[in-house]
Design a protein that fits this description.
The complex is a heterodimer of chains A (about 425) and B (about 120).
Chain A: E1 2-7, E2 19-24, E3 27-32, H1 36-43, E4 52-53, E5 62-63, H2 66-79, E6 83-87, H3 93-106, E7 109-112, H4 119-128, H5 135-141, E8 144-148, H6 152-155, H7 159-164, E9 180-185, E10 197-200, H8 206-217, E11 227-228, E12 231-232, H9 233-244, E13 248-253, H10 255-258, H11 264-277, E14 282-287, H12 294-305, E15 311-312, E16 319-320, H13 327-332, E17 338-342, H14 346-349, H15 352-360, E18 363-366, H16 372-375, E19 379-381, E20 392-395, E21 401-404, H17 415-430
Parallel strand pairs in A: 6-7, 6-17, 8-9, 8-13, 9-10, 13-14, 17-18, 18-19
Antiparallel strand pairs in A: 1-2, 2-3, 4-5, 4-19, 7-15, 11-12, 15-16, 20-21
Chain B: E1 3-10, H1 13-17, H2 25-31, E2 33-36, H3 38-43, E3 50-55, E4 58-66, E5 74-78, H4 81-84, E6 100-109, H5 116-121
Parallel strand pairs in B: 1-5, 2-4
Antiparallel strand pairs in B: 1-6, 3-4, 3-6
Classes of the chains: A alpha/beta (about 425), B alpha/beta (about 120).
Chain lengths: ~425, ~120
Amino acid sequence: MAVITDALCPFCGCMCDDLMIVTEGNRIIEAKHACKLGAAKIMGHHRIKEPMMRPDKNSNFKEVSYDEAIEAAAQILVKSKRPLLYGWASALCEVHKKGILLAEELGAIIDNTASVCHGPSTLAVHEKGLPTSTLGQIKNRADVVVFWGCNPAQAHPRHMGRYSVFAKGFFSDKGRKMRKIIVVDVRKTDTANVADEYVQVEQGADYMVISALRAILAGQAAVVPDQVGGVTKEQLVKLADTLKTAKFGAIFFGMGLTQSKGRYKNIDNAISLTTELNSFTKFVIMPMRGHYNVTGFGQVCTWETGFATAVDFARGAPYYNPGETASNDVLYRKEVDAAMIIAGDAAAHFPANSVRHLAAIPLVQIDPYWNPTTEIADVVIPTAICGVEVEGTAYRMDGVSLRYRKMIEPTHPTDIEVLERLIERVKEIRGD
Amino acid sequence: MTLKVNLITGRTINQGANLENKTSPDYLEATAYCELNSNDIEKLDKSGNNVKVRTNYGEVTVKLKENNGNPDGIAFIPMGPWANAVVDHDTKGCGMPGFKGIQAELEGTSDKILLMKELIARYK
């Protein structure tokens, strides 16, 4: 039996770094300190054992060798005039680097799961910048914390304990007792149940509510109607007062803003609110990133291509325009004629109309697990699990990079090995 | 009778814990349901334990659950293939489909809930 201390969790953007992993032989038998989400991932589920292929999408899969599967995948991608390489969030930065090389070689579109998560937040940051901090600063200093359109009690279960609500730090030694917690949401979530104040917004009215708060902060409360987006003026005035009298405030936001009416403009407005709060006190804002390394893809893609995601190499140079080049844009328009889905599950998390097109085109899947994407794939290549069986770098939701160690030895080739062989074969077929 | 609601989709802890276990009954249990508050449930006809969700983008049958954290007229389905059968594909020019704020019609039904494989097979 061996124990790995201070192990990193490869599930959500919190990247908790205090796990204790107990192994026996090449098997993990316990993941101490992990939440339900982290433990479920680390303890594992049924894996795809061997690569698989089928002659058409309604036939049964037949197990094949890695050589055969990589050859078939390379042929699909090379024959494609407009390939899409999507996923990446459950993989380490070293995998992203290889993926971008493959996209460049193919003239493909490369996009990650931020497309259906915090992609709009990136667009807002282009417009307004991001007054933010590390999670450590929030843990040590924040006395007012706002969760807007996010539900960490269910989606980031240890966030409140480690960083934002209950955590005790240098200037926050009383933890929960010294913090005012505000939840703004359209329904009363488990997170709202631990808040000091719950602000219930009408679905899709976040932009108006943020604008009303900005007006009140600017001394223009007189122009604010008695009720805005389902929230009374009285509650808004009280909320604005709580925010501006904080010693150090933090706003965390989630899909409630990025996926509701207004999309990136909601974030744009929330960033402006944060900036304006800095006229009164110190205030920061941070997206609650979902997959543990979805932030890492944005980092790698930005330093390699100049853009965070939805990058189109068809012109020979990186081109980026979400709304035109993001996965769901090109799928719904039936623009792409082949796809490779890796470390993400498009068929589970894309709208039906996008999945219909994925089901109609040649599809390669690289993933440890059988999921809805497998159901519509032509070639399936199982790989080792990043962060559990593969070491490497990932970026936490606050942009801090941390290094994952192996917990156990892999039983499958890594994504990096598969991508390297794929790139090599693509180059050979194209005669490069 | 048919109940008109505003549908939102999103994460839950059980959906997340089964993210890499999507062929299992646990994943179906964690994602193939629709939550309404008790007022709204009262308004639905009771022709079964399930609910048929119909939008401009599709139709899906899921289990009906009560959650009084939802205000009147708000329905919630955990993110996943069942929710995505009825969400809006339009990315409004920024790459993000409409996963929240979809006008939907609900009715009670005794129709069965499709398994993940059966649901995805509809797209082939």
